[in-house]
Amino acid sequence: MQTGQTKAIHHGGYNARYLSSGHLVFFRQGSLFGLRFNPSRLETSGQPVRLLDGVAADVASGGADLTMSRTGTLVYRAGKATGQGLPVVWIDSNGKTEPLISRPDIYFDPRLSPDLRSLAIVNAGNNGPDIDMWDIQRQMMSPLTSNRHNNLYPVWTPDSRHLVFESRWEGVHTMWWTRADGGSEPRKLLEAHQSIIPYSVSPDGRRIAFYESSPAAGMDLWTLSLDLSDVHNPKPGSPELFLQTSADESQPAFSPDGNWIAYTSDESRSNQVYVRPFPPGPGKWQISREGGSWPRFARDGKQLFYVAADGHLMAVDYQAKVDSFEIGRAS
Q: For residues 58 and 147, what is the distance between their CA atoms, to the nearest angstrom?
């Protein structure tokens, strides 16, 4: 669009392609569908029609082995759609796993509540993505959001009573605060025309660390202060820049004492995990060596976890001092 805004034209699909015949084709649950589409008005009409089954695709990543010519000739690799039933598991310090959620689905971005009673998770199945809540003791799933506006990136507050998440409403990115029990309508904290992705909340619950992504500036790190005089209706301050460089920085995670932020950066031409003091001050420490992303601090203040480039979950012992951050070997 000339305004630079985006518009949702259909919910429940991935890997969409426009055909010169005036149709939009896309995948849903491993099958190829077609839908009439008016490119000048950016509107669809009618109901989706199933066109083809048996195409190799990946539901989790949104990829598909398929291409089309301008004349409508279709070339594809026969196969099955993968990633339709992703398991969610516990993993202990020895690498042993056991199921956490009994029913596989298209899940991603799981977040365990600080009181260990609930799991907030994004479910991209059906008409998602939406945020679901898994009651660990009762083994029961319930929806937290169901408004079909691409609700993503849930982050818990320290008291386990609230969550922050991002939503996309008609091309506008918004950040919301909501009760974990769904007892009231979410409250909007921030709005932007580019992605504003929450990643962690400070230990006192009064500041959100997030990263903003835009085509012009790339990804930068910000924080947003909150007035919690009314904890169910917080008043946001103005966003404050934490880190902006020519590289892409993302995934800012507060330490348990709130004095440090771990984050991911591609300043070395590959993603690595770093730590800087908070509030911003001198010093920067590289944590990962062979690539890393998705940093999270352990609650005991002794370890920092991240995902290595080869997909392994890594743990690093650390000792934080007044003006230094000492790390051990990753394991």
A: 25
DSSP for 159-213, please give it. TSSEEEEEEEETTEEEEEEEETT--S--EEEEEESSEEEEEEE-TTSSEEEEEEE
Which CA distances in Å does 43 have to 7, 36, 126? 9, 9, 21
Residues ≥6 apart with Cβ < 8 Å to 312: none
Torsion of CA 179, 100, 271, 177, to 10 degrees: 0
| 155 sits in which H/E element | strand 152-156
pLDDT (tens digit per residue) in 167-200:
987 678 999 999 999 888 899 999 998 889 999 9
What one-character DSSP code corresponds to residue 78? B
Give the Cα separation of 214 and 202 in Å (integer).
25
Structure tokens at 143: 């929806």
pLDDT in tens, 284-305: 999 999 899 999 999 999 999 9
Contact predicate 55/67, CB 8 Å: no
Give exposure, 223-259, as e/b (b: 16+ Cβ within 10 Å). Answer: bbbbebeeeeebebeebeebbeeeebbbbbbbbeeeb
